[in-house]
Design brief:
The protein has about 100 residues and is α+β, with helices and mostly antiparallel strands. The protein contains 3 helices and 5 strands, in the order E-E-E-E-E-H-H-H.
């Protein structure tokens, strides 16, 4: 038998490229219809994946997050997501 572990793949909603889950950033909609950046990848809720700041900006501009999560998202919340992704990319800890 082959003992090679399968790498979970996810698709970035910004560029539609499939990549290993660990290389992507997750944004999740939780039960109270709020959205947040999920640095652990383990928060319960509907999640989407982003591979870069360019893709996050593309998704924000096209209102794709609102379509994916079926909610209205404030400018303030978009700014929070951008700040959280910037912190994560630069190695800062984000407590979700």
């Amino acid at each position: 038998m082959n003992n090679v572990k399968k790498v979970p793949m996810r698709k970035c909603v910004g560029c539609n490229v499939s990549k290993p889950k660990k290389e992507l950033y997750r944004i999740v909609k939780i039960q109270d219809n709020s959205i947040k950046f999920d640095s652990t990848g383990k928060i319960n809720g509907r999640g989407i994946y982003i591979c870069s700041m360019n893709c996050l900006n593309r998704v924000i501009k096209s209102k794709r997050l609102e379509k994916e999560f079926d909610i209205k998202i404030s400018e303030e919340k978009y700014n929070q997501l951008v700040n959280d992704l910037n912190k994560s990319i630069s190695g800062g800890e984000i407590i979700g």
